[in-house]
Amino acid sequence: MKRLLFMVGVLALLAINIYCGGNSSTNPWGITTVRINLGETRTASPEQGGILKQTSVVPSNVAAIRFTISAPDMVTIQKVVTVAGRTTIIETFEVPSGLNRLFVVEALDESGNILYRGETIVNLDGRLVTLRIVLEATQVEAPIDLYISNVVNNEIDLSFEVNNSGNVAANNVLVFIILGGAESQTCQSFSLTVPAGGSVSRTLYSIYASYYKIIVDPLNTISETNEENNVECNWAEEVCSAPPPTNCP
Ligand SMILES: [Ca+2]
Ligand SMILES: [Ca+2]
């Protein structure tokens, strides 16, 4: 499920277990060993104090993980770890014991953009604790824009593509095709799903029509960044710029 959420770029990601050292982790200088696991599977057992099973993995588009540990009474600790194809990352930090240590974990792409981010505040006193940080997607989804391209009309067959330049799939996209010849006009319609950043090709066979007007989302049920590029038409200007019909038999 978490992996699915990653793929659609919507929500939560990694579960991170932070193990703050046991009896031997706090030394006389007030340093606590903190171990952070990303993507490691752990199984609950009484000996581990009821640590829950974690099965999430580091997603493939993450190039590096940046850890930042800070508090008002300590020097900030920062470390960037290259993922290099690994699905689990284990890092150990020596952190001054004390209250309210802020742990920030950021997942970066190859350009250094922050794809996912999570944080938690921990009191480090030497006792075993298990924490969970949920990383959430930081990038806003690109809104949908639908448009038509690659129209080919040889007056027998009509082919074209419906495109979606957003990063969210467009479902139930209605398309009207008005065809005109020497004597009549006809209208055809269908619905399709256009994947994020993708296109769908369609061909209408044996149309025997000289003129076409193709309208994507004619009833404007899908909000787009550009609502002005939804028509491809080879008719006269007054036909091409006319409002779309409200129904299409
Ligand atoms: Ca559009
Ligand atoms: Ca629209």
Can you offer a commentary on this structure?
This protein has 249 residues and is mainly beta. It has two domains: 2-137, Immunoglobulin-like, CATH 2.60.40; 146-240, Immunoglobulins (Immunoglobulin-like). Helices cover 4% and strands 50% of the residues. It contains two helices and 15 strands. It has helices at residues 2-7, 237-240; strands at 12-20, 31-38, 64-71, 74-82, 89-96, 98-108, 114-124, 129-137, 146-153, 158-164, 170-180, 185-194, 199-204, 211-216, 231-233. Strands 4-3-6-7-8-1-2-5 form an eight-stranded antiparallel beta sheet. A four-stranded antiparallel beta sheet has the order 12-11-14-15, with no helix packed on it. A hairpin with a 4-residue loop joins strand 11 (170-180) and strand 12 (185-194). The protein is rod-shaped, with a radius of gyration of 28 Å. The protein starts with a helix and ends in a 9-residue tail after the last helix. Bound molecules: calcium ion (CA) (2 copies).
Question: Tags for this entry?
Answer:
249 residues; mainly beta; Immunoglobulin-like; 2 helices; 15 strands; 4% helix; rod-shaped; binds calcium ion
- At CATH level 2, the architecture of the largest domain is Sandwich
CATH homologous superfamily heading of the largest domain? Immunoglobulins
Measure the end-to-end span. 41 Å
Provide the low-confidence segments as ranges.
1-15, 20-28, 40-55
The share of residues in extended strands comes to over 45%
Tally of individual helices: 2
